[in-house]
Design goal:
Layout lengths: L1 H9 L5 E5 L3 E6 L4 E6 L9 H17 L3 E6 L19 H19 L5 E5 L3 E2 L1 H8 L2 E5 L4 E3 L2 H4 L5 H11 L1 H10 L3 E2 H7 L4 E3 L2 H13 L6 H21 L1 H13 L1 H15 L1
Parallel strand pairs: 3-4, 4-5, 5-7, 6-8, 7-10
Antiparallel strand pairs: 1-2, 2-3, 8-9
The structure holds ligand L52RLTOW.
The site of ligand L52RLTOW has 30 residues, from helix 3, helix 5 and helix 12.
Subcellular location: Mitochondrion matrix
Protein name: Enoyl-CoA delta isomerase 1, mitochondrial
Main location: mitochondrion
Length: 275
């Protein structure tokens, strides 16, 4: 449904390409060069290994397609993305855990450093890894007022990796990020707008898509080279630590996830979700 709406908006029933993998739908408007990537993994778009691999591979495909901009959104009612699949954290197989971590690192780098501008149309709740996906885009439009967004990892008794934290600092600044991260705060749409976690708040998804397209239209007269160089210079300090420390980051995640205390917290959190 959302895909049909976007195609209507971009006026491109004739020239669009559509690819549907099971959990991800992508369309490209050939006239405008705008792609939409719609997450569709019920019930909550949780990020497991296979879903992350699909997202990463679709981003590579968009790079090859030389698109001019991308909108990332969700086809689910009320949920943008619930973050990493928490069931993957519970009594994990260390080998699979490592693979997920590495794939997530690479997916984040690919999304954060796209050669084209990106907009997150946040049409539902967006905790933890969902918030990270949104923060990695160039622009965020959130539907309000009833959804929430934030890095809530401390509430699960886990630690958001340094690159999650740095990404948040890049968006809302050191002080607000510190309070937000340590308290694991989830912000309503209006609060998120107030602290700069999102750029615009709109009442419905139609408006959100329009705002996203308007943002991407700003780049019609900007050289793609000038855009990409500027973005790389701006974002390089945020990504460099991870590029230099992938193994260290992986070791930290695996070691902490396997610890009995963390496993206990995750078990309790999962139980509370089921309730
Ligand atoms: C695996 C290791 C990888 C290593 C990667 C490297 C680094 C990262 C390390 C740590 C950082 C962690 C990042 C994260 O993303 S942690 C995930 C945090 N996410 C959450 O806390 C979200 C929890 N969910 C909710 O708050 C709510 O579900 C919701 C999203 C607001 C939706 O609420 P709603 O009321 O609409 O639905 P339900 O709560 O009834 O949920 C429906 C159904 O989905 C299950 N579920 C919800 N969220 C998740 C999830 N993140 N993973 C898996 N399953 C989830 C929920 O339990 C329900 O299931 P049921 O069987 O009861 O129907």
């Amino acid at each position: 449904m959302l895909r049909r709406y976007i195609l209507n908006k971009t006026n491109t029933f004739i020239n669009y390409r559509y690819a549907s993998q099971s959990m991800l739908q992508s369309t490209i408007d050939d006239k405008l060069g705008i792609a939409t990537l719609v997450m569709n993994k019920p019930p909550v778009n949780s990020l497991n290994l296979e879903f992350l691999e699909e997202i990463k591979s679709q981003l590579t495909q968009f790079k090859n397609d030389k698109i001019r901009g991308m909108i990332l959104t969700s086809d689910l009612q009320k949920i943008f993305c619930a973050g990493l699949d928490i069931t993957e954290f519970s009594n994990p197989n260390p080998e699979r855990l490592s693979k997920i971590c590495t794939t997530f690192q690479d997916t984040w780098l690919a999304l954060y450093l796209t050669q084209f501008p990106t907009v997150a149309v946040i049409n539902g709740h967006s905790p933890a890894g969902g918030c990270l996906l949104a923060m990695s885009c160039d622009y965020r439009v959130m539907v309000g007022p009833n959804y929430t967004i934030g890095l809530n990892e401390t509430k699960l008794g886990i630690v958001a990796p340094k690159w999650f934290q740095d990404c948040m600092v890049a968006v809302i600044g050191q002080r607000k990020a510190e309070v937000s991260l340590t308290t694991g705060k989830m912000y309503t749409t209006d609060q998120a707008l107030q602290i700069g976690l999102v750029d615009e708040s709109v009442p419905d998804v139609d408006n959100a898509i329009n705002k996203g397209i308007q943002f991407l239209n700003n780049f019609q007269k900007i050289s793609p080279w000038a855009y990409k160089m500027t973005k790389d210079i701006r974002r390089q300090p945020t990504v460099q630590w991870l590029i230099d420390n992938k193994q260290k980051d992986l070791d930290f995640v695996v070691k902490s996830m396997m610890s009995p205390n963390v496993q206990k917290s995750i078990g309790l959190y999962l139980q509370s979700l089921k309730k």
